[in-house]
Amino acid sequence: MTHPIAHRYGCILISRLLTLHYGELVKLDLDKIFETMPDFNIDHNGLLEFCYRVKTPQVYDPKDLEQDTVGARIYRSLISHFLDYQDIPDAVLLESIRLSLQCLLGRCQLTRTLNQRLGRVLQKTVKGKLDNADQENLYACISLLRHLFAGSTAGKLSGVENRVTVTISQIISLQDIHERLLLECFGCLRNLITKCDSAKRLVLDWKQYKKPCISILDSIRRMYQDSSQSSQVFCTIMEVLKLLVLEKTTRATLFKININAELLLVLERLFQNKETTRSRAIIGYFINATYTTDGQLAIMRIDARENKIHILANENMICILRQICTSDSLRLIAKATTLVRVLLCKSEKAKFSLKQSSFGITATELQDRLCTKYPGYISKMTKEASNGNELHIANNFTGALPEEEKRLLSEALNNAVYISRHLQSYSRKAGH
């Protein structure tokens, strides 16, 4: 039996070789090794035990093993290690295995087979709840799909063609689902829709979901309103929404079903309960809602209205942003002021709305409050702001301040100065 250390370094070496080759950094002719791979039916050559996660000891015919190619053995070993090493505290090893699988699974047509396997396991839900072994089986297949989608554009398109979204919706709507499986499902979904607009549109295509199956978006809406969900699940859900809102069609759908109002109500509750991490995740969604698909700040029209002013149309939005700016949480203040700064960019209607609500005064008061709390900034701020430059940590700042807090403080101050200056400029131009 090979020593565990040899396993570890072998996985790391393979990962680096595959990353170099499939990243087209170095031509290593590795395709010759894998060109005689078997047909990747999950039930072929014992792969069932690895992908389907059967708990019985694995027994192979020595003749089958002798006939295996090097490529087949590498695939089998990687999948075995991936499933067996999930809980070990070795981030380097796990990342190496994941990178290898992303490189290799991306060139296999496994989507349909894995989706069918998931469907067979889910058929048991008709008779009752899934046991732990069934959930492990689901986890194994979803994990492989997640890595497949991360490593292949063709894999994403195959996922769209085979309606993997329906399967994911069935899994996340299960009762008593393990959080580990739930996170893996959303991770798989995130990889599927990243830089794939057809997959994003498919997620919001209600016609594909047949009763009693509910849509992915309906499950997401139920989860982010459920205060019992963990912060990790909540933030993962918001990452999915942040990707969906980047695409023009899905953005329009999200706006039409009034998801912004729902999230704003959740944000108000989270802020009152001082749940900073979740609050930042929701603000991140609103920031993404002002972007185009390439991530650049821009104005987009939905139902003949700018999406930025659409976000501000709810009077509670500016109210909650002002409340956050008066709080003591630098993490929230930095995120909220970034949202306001983004809204101001190239949007006269947003400037008018924020000016009418006296947000410029709020920004000035925030600036003064932060400078009073961190006096080392005062002389630096006056000099830099007068020249229209970005603010930086003052060299004469006294007192120990963590690097993360320094970054947040600079971000919040820069944003406050920017907001105040632009709203004052707008007032002068408008003659107010």
Automatic annotation (TrEMBL):
Gene Ontology terms describing biological process: cilium organization
Family annotation (SUPFAM superfamilies): ARM repeat (SSF48371)
InterPro entries in the cross-refs: ARM-like (IPR011989), ARM-type_fold (IPR016024), Rotatin (IPR030791)
GO cellular component, one term: ciliary basal body
Coiled-coil residues: none
Domain of life: Eukaryota
Identification of the protein by name: Uncharacterized protein
Lineage of the organism: Eukaryota, Fungi, Fungi incertae sedis, Chytridiomycota, Chytridiomycota incertae sedis
